[in-house]
Design a protein that fits this description.
477 residues, mainly alpha, 68% helix, 0% strand
Length: 477
């Protein structure tokens, strides 16, 4: 009964959202969505004559499906029709993600309260309640759904189904290919936790210092930070300095003995199996290169410069972006980090490396780039906190925060966002009414909106941290 209520409530919210205002530029698309919409219109006609480069090919499937569905039923491919068709497909992807979520709950034997909390963390956020309906021409909805399926089949290691989902993911998000191969070919042994208190170590400080030096060299040497105004350069310095307490704080709360776990990994890894995984990856990459065209425009150096030039604009901006996109999941991960790390280690090296790569890529590719890995992250969090007590009042509080705070930051008057999307450097883009919506995207966020959102985010985190004693672990046995 609770499951049906959650689905009906979410469906009502999304129905109201779909019937709201749409992006009022380019007839319902902006950014990469303009290109993806053109793929949906002309995929069958241009796949042979025009071709797509390697990066475009790995994001192509949702829009190829859109084109095929329109062509099959002989529907006119005008802009309004394409937008409505893409919204319908996003609803289908959401339904697929929900189906796999309840399959996961059944496998994990989750009780009703933690099932409800997991549903709130996964679906009551800005990404699913606003992002995909304002901006439907995005492959991240299908990436999220396939990531949920991948996690579902990984938990019980259903090898064949896991392989099929990962193969589909090749043309949706490269992250699904990476995590799929890791899950299929790495050993599934648990990582070793510390049997006693974690011994002191200088490694976290050394790692933080090495990362800071790396960022400084690339920032001022390659990404052009030196040409920015002095205030921007000060913020870059503060962003680098903020890395130190983040890494050191995470290391102090780490319950995993990495040295012993790496030794066990070397013992358990079978060279034949690992070599098969490398060969499969190389074969898939070769097929993608042969299928793609126009790769002369795909320069690795240019990609590094473009991705790096917009990063670290504000201290720990990528964490704020993750929180504003995916809601309470990032807050609860920080609060219950030791339990999260325990469950992460229990799932083996595939999960550890997948989420580790996500942490490395997040500052450069934005919060939505984690869509393919977000289900794995949140399911691990759910496993970590499922033995805590969550009453109905606590769930109502979590739902209120998820619905009112995170998606609620977006402005209802979307017509004004046209100034931002059409002229991102204009003065109108910095007004508070526009920043209420734009704050969810790192490229458009300004200094004032960053401070307001950071303060609100910190207050929510502090409030839930104070309430942590209410969620005492339920003793069993």
């Amino acid at each position: 009964m609770r499951s049906l209520f959650l689905i009906a409530f979410l469906a009502t919210l999304i129905f109201l959202q779909i019937n709201g205002e749409k992006i009022p530029v380019n007839e319902g698309a902006f950014g990469d969505g303009v290109f993806y919409r053109s793929v949906g219109q002309t995929f069958l006609e241009s796949i042979e004559a025009q071709g797509y480069n390697l990066v475009q090919l790995t994001r192509m499937l949702p829009f190829a499906v859109l084109n095929l569905s329109f062509s099959t039923f002989h529907i006119v491919k005008d802009f309004e029709g394409m937008r409505n068709g893409m919204i319908i497909w996003q609803v289908i992807y959401l339904a697929l993600a929900i189906y796999w979520y309840f399959k996961i709950c059944k496998k994990l034997r989750l009780k009703t309260p933690i099932l409800t909390l997991g549903f709130i963390l996964l679906f009551f956020n800005f990404t699913w309640l606003k992002e995909f309906w304002y901006h439907p021409f995005s492959p991240d909805g299908l990436a999220f759904a396939l990531g949920m399926g991948q996690t579902n089949y990984f938990l019980r290691y259903e090898k064949f189904k896991l392989g099929l989902v990962s193969l589909l993911g090749i043309f949706v998000s490269p992250l699904l290919l990476i995590s799929g191969l890791l899950m299929l070919f790495l050993p599934g042994d648990k990582l070793i936790p510390y049997s006693d208190k974690r011994p002191p170590s200088a490694f976290p400080v050394m790692l933080a210092f090495a990362i800071a030096v790396f960022l400084a060299v690339f920032g001022w040497g390659i990404w052009g930070w030196g040409a920015k105004p002095w205030l921007d350069q000060v913020l870059y310095v503060l962003s680098i300095v903020a890395i130190f307490p983040l890494i050191i704080g995470m290391a102090k709360r780490n319950p995993i003995d990495w040295e012993a776990s790496i030794i066990l990994f070397r013992k358990k890894t079978k060279p034949d199996r690992l070599s098969k995984g490398i060969m499969v990856f190389a074969a898939i990459l070769l097929v993608l290169v042969l299928l793609s065209g126009k790769n002369e425009t795909l320069g690795i150096g240019q990609l590094i410069r473009e991705r790096g030039s917009g990063t670290f604009r504000f201290p720990l901006d990528f964490i704020l972006g993750l929180g504003l996109q995916w809601g309470l999941a990032i807050v609860l991960t920080g609060i219950y980090l030791p339990r999260f790390a325990d469950e992460l280690g229990n799932l083996g090296w595939a999960a550890v490396i997948s989420l580790g790569l996500g942490m490395v890529l997040l500052p450069y590719f934005g919060a939505l780039s984690m869509a393919a890995w977000t289900p794995l992250w949140i399911i691990i969090l759910i496993k970590g906190i499922k033995r805590y007590h969550w009453g109905n009042k606590d769930l109502l509080l979590m739902g209120a925060f998820a619905l009112l705070f995170f998606p609620g930051l977006a402005s209802a008057q979307l017509i004004r966002i046209s100034h931002l999307l059409a002229m991102p450097n204009a003065e109108t883009a910095h007004s508070l009414s526009i920043q209420k919506f734009a704050i969810h995207w790192e490229d458009y966020r300004n200094w004032t909106a960053y401070l307001i959102a950071l303060t609100a985010f910190a207050l929510v985190t502090y409030f839930l941290l104070l309430r942590r004693k209410r969620y005492q672990r339920v003793l069993t046995g």
